[in-house]
Amino acid sequence: MLTHRIIPCLDVKAGRVVKGVNFVGLRDAGDPVEIARQYDRQGADELVFLDITASHEDRNIMLDVVRQVAEQCFMPFTVGGGIRTIDDVTALIQAGAEKVSINTAAVTTPDIVKQTAKRFGRCATVVNIDPRRVRVEEFIQRTGREPSSVSKDGRVFEVHTHGGRKPTGLEAVPWAKKVTELGAGEIVLTSMDADGTKDGYDLEITAAVAGAVDVPVVASGGCGSPEHIRLVLTQTGADAALAASIFHYGEYSIPQTKQYLAERGVPVRMDDDLE
Does 130 participate in catalysis according to the annotation? Predict the structure, then answer.
């Protein structure tokens, strides 16, 4: 039986792990290397490391932090933020990342997804999609076209880049299909509306994207409890759940979360020697 992955996410700014609400109001959560070690000891299935201001600040990702985390952790490790060229991707892989997560560059230079998949394989090629619900009128005014679909509350799931700062005119589901055609082997889907709220994942957009592509989808944004993880894994078709706040601030541990899921019939990897 295939197991669902539980993935802590380290949003890093200026060398520190931070967490906010709706991509703003960031507060410090600690040292990325130490936090990564803790998650490795607890038995996290993977780790995602995002340098969340690298694209906005037009700088390269912090390779030294990536190297330190890779040297001290044995779990699979995905890194994103500030990736602009295939050379950036190569540098991250050489620094120890098993996968790279491309967001802004996938929109501005879609060929980078194809290049990454060709050089390092689809399994190493992750595209992070950050949708936000926007009013239909606003979307039409900016793009000059009608949306292909709307949410249950009459909004458009529009993709944003540069750490959620820039609307792109792209709709989340068609964009997810496009990047998988280009070579993405996995999608990390982060709801900007749910991010940091701890009110639960956006089940609607997660189900829509997971149902539209044939690659694993990692649900992200809004986790406030293990029950939220159970819901997104059992109701949307998501393959994995990413969370930050509930783990960073000690509300729940990885073993506690996995135990909760296992007791409710959700298949997860359990290790007898988890701390």
Answer: yes
Residues 107-166 pLDDT 10s: 999 999 999 999 999 999 999 999 999 999 999 999 999 999 999 999 999 999 877 789
pLDDT digits (tens, 9 = 90+) for 11-51: 776 666 664 444 444 444 567 788 888 889 999 999 998 87
Indicate the pTM of the whole model.
Answer: 0.90
Question: Please, which contacts does 27-36 make with residues 24 or more away whose CB atoms are closer than 8 Å?
Answer: 29/244, 29/248, 29/249, 30/248, 32/65, 32/69, 33/65, 33/68, 33/69, 33/72, 35/8, 35/10, 35/248, 36/10, 36/69, 36/72, 36/73
Q: Given 11, 40, 51, 88, which residue is catalytic? A: 11
What is the C-alpha to C-alpha distance for residues 172 and 160, in angstroms, rounded to an integer?
9
Q: Which helix (H) or strand (E) holds 86?
A: helix 86-95
Give the pair of three-digit tokens for residue 189: 């889907």
**Nearest alpha-carbon partner for 222 in 136, 132, 138:** 132
User: Rounded to whole angstroms, how far apart are CA atoms 199 and 88?
Assistant: 35
Q: Is 257 helix (H, G, I), strand (E, B) or coil?
A: helix
- Tell me whether strands 24-30 and 47-51 are parallel, antiparallel or unpaired: unpaired
- What is residue 55's DSSP assignment? T
Q: Which amino acid is at 145?
A: R
Pick the catalytic residue: 40, 130, 193, 195? 130
For residue 150, the tally of other CB atoms under 10 A from its CB is 16
Distance of CA 121 to the CA centre of its chain: 19
Tokens 């989340």 label which residue?
172
